[in-house]
Design brief:
single chain; about 400 residues; alpha/beta; Spore Coat Polysaccharide Biosynthesis Protein SpsA, Chain A; 2 domains; seven-stranded mixed β-sheet; three-stranded mixed β-sheet; 15 helices; about 15% strand
C-alpha cells in the first residue's frame, strides 16, 4: 500500500511539475514569437540617400579548407547591392584549393575583395579567432560583420541590415539565418537543437538592457567597430570555442545595444550535413557552450530529459486518470512548442511530434562532446589540439 502510494505521489509530482514547466515554456515561446522581427521587413534604402553618409560595412570571413562552399558564399557577398561594402577573407592556413579560388575571385572582384593569408597561428590562439582578429584589424569602416564561409546571401541582405541599423541604431546586430536541411536526419537534429538553444539562451531577451540574456550568431554578427575595438577585438576570445555567443556576451555587458532579427531567405546556410555530420559537428561546441562544466552539463541533460521524456513515461504508465490527464496536458504543450519551432525552421510541423527523439539525439551529442573533451583533456579543431586547461582559463561562457 505504501509502495503504491509513493509511486502515485512521485508520478503525480512529475506530471504536475512537467506540465507547469511546459506551460511556462509555451508562454515564453509565444512571447518570443511576438518579439520576433525579420530582416525582410526592413525596406531597401531610398534612392535619394547620399551614399557618402551611409555607414561603411566591412565583412570578415575566416576560411580554412573551404574550397567546396567558399565560391558560392563569397560570390553572394560580392553581388550585394549595398554600395559601401568591403569583403575581407582571411585564408587561415588552407592546404586545399582555397588559396587559388580566392586569388581568382579577388582578381575579378574590382577591388571589392581583400584576401589575407595566414601561414601560422600564434600560440595561445584558436585558429578561427585569430583569423577573425587579423581580418578585423584591416578594417576601418563603421561596422564589422563577422560571418562564416558557407553562408549564402541574397543581394539585398546587407542593404536591409543597414536599413535596420539606420532605423534602430544598435551596436550589435544578430541575424539568425534560414537553415537549409536536406535530409530527415538534419531536420530532426536541427529541431532538437533549436528547441534546446532557445530554451537555454532565450535570445529574444538579449535586447532588454536589464536582462542577463545575450546572443551571438556565427553566420551574422555585426558590430559597431568602436565597441569591438573597445573590447580589444577578439583578444579576450582568443581561446573561446563558441566565440560568436561569447562576443555577444562581452558586448552586452560592456553596454552595447543588441538587436536580434531572423531571416526568411535573405541569409541562409546549411548548418550540418546529415545526422552523423550534425552529431559530429557540435563535438567541439556543445560542452564548450556550457563552460566545460560537468555539473552544468549533467544538469542540462537531466533537466531536458525531465521536460521532454518524463511526461511520456508518466502518461504511458499512469496509475490514475488524474495523473494521465495532467501528463497529457504537458504533452500537448510540448507538441505545441515543437510545432512552433518546426514551423519557424520551415520544416513540416510533423517533425514537432518527434521532439523527444530530436532532443534525445541532441542530448546524446552533448554527452558525447563532454566525454570526448574530458577523455582527450582538450579539443581537436581543424587538425590542431587545444588543451582543456587553456580553454577553461580563457573561456568567456563560464
Amino acid at each position: 500500500m505504501t509502495h503504491n502510494f509513493t509511486t502515485i505521489s512521485w508520478s503525480f509530482l512529475v506530471a504536475v511539475g512537467t506540465a507547469v514547466g511546459w506551460l511556462w515554456m509555451v508562454i515564453n515561446a509565444v512571447r518570443a514569437k511576438h518579439c520576433q522581427k525579420f530582416l525582410e521587413d526592413y525596406p531597401l534604402l531610398r534612392g535619394d540617400l547620399n551614399v557618402e553618409h551611409l555607414p561603411v560595412v566591412d565583412v570578415v570571413v575566416a576560411a580554412r579548407n573551404e574550397a567546396e562552399s567558399l565560391p558560392a558564399a563569397i560570390s553572394s557577398l560580392l553581388r550585394q547591392t549595398y554600395p559601401r561594402l568591403r569583403v575581407v577573407v582571411v585564408d587561415d592556413r588552407s592546404v586545399d584549393s582555397t588559396p587559388a579560388i580566392l586569388r581568382e575571385m579577388s582578381a575579378s572582384s574590382g577591388g571589392k575583395l581583400t584576401v589575407i593569408r595566414i601561414d601560422e597561428c600564434p600560440p595561445g590562439w584558436l585558429g578561427k579567432c585569430h583569423a577573425l582578429y587579423v581580418g578585423a584589424q584591416s578594417c576601418n569602416g563603421d561596422y564589422v560583420l563577422f560571418t562564416d564561409a558557407d553562408v549564402i546571401w541574397a543581394p539585398t541582405a546587407i542593404e536591409r541590415s543597414v536599413a535596420c541599423i539606420l532605423e534602430e541604431n544598435p551596436d550589435h546586430l544578430c541575424v539568425f539565418p534560414s537553415l537549409e536541411t536536406r535530409t530527415i536526419g538534419e531536420r530532426i537534429f536541427a529541431l532538437g537543437f533549436a528547441q534546446l538553444f532557445f530554451a537555454y539562451w532565450r535570445p529574444y531577451r538579449a535586447e532588454e538592457p536589464r536582462s542577463n540574456s545575450y546572443v551571438g550568431v556565427g553566420a551574422f554578427n555585426m558590430v559597431r567597430r568602436r565597441f569591438y575595438e573597445k573590447l580589444g577585438g577578439h583578444r579576450p576570445l582568443r581561446l573561446t570555442v563558441v566565440d560568436d555567443v561569447a562576443l555577444g556576451k562581452l558586448l552586452k555587458f560592456s553596454g552595447a545595444r543588441t538587436w536580434v532579427l531572423s531571416a526568411r531567405s535573405e541569409v541562409r546556410v546549411r548548418w550540418q550535413k546529415g545526422l552523423i555530420g550534425s552529431i559530429r559537428g557540435v563535438e567541439k561546441n556543445a560542452f564548450a557552450g556550457l563552460g566545460y562544466s560537468f555539473v552544468r552539463t549533467a544538469g542540462a541533460i537531466a533537466g531536458a530529459s525531465m521536460l521532454w521524456l518524463a511526461p511520456w513515461c508518466v502518461a504511458l504508465c499512469a496509475s490514475s486518470p488524474t495523473i494521465f490527464f495532467i501528463a497529457l496536458a504537458g504533452l500537448i504543450c510540448q507538441l505545441a512548442y515543437g510545432w512552433g519551432v518546426a514551423k519557424s525552421l520551415g520544416v513540416s510541423p510533423f517533425y514537432g511530434i518527434l521532439a523527444p527523439v530530436s532532443v534525445s539525439l541532441c542530448l546524446f551529442a552533448l554527452a558525447r562532446s563532454a566525454v570526448l573533451t574530458l577523455l582527450h583533456r582538450g579539443v581537436w579543431w581543424r587538425d590542431t589540439f587545444y588543451p582543456l586547461e587553456e580553454l577553461k582559463k580563457y573561456d568567456k561562457l563560464k
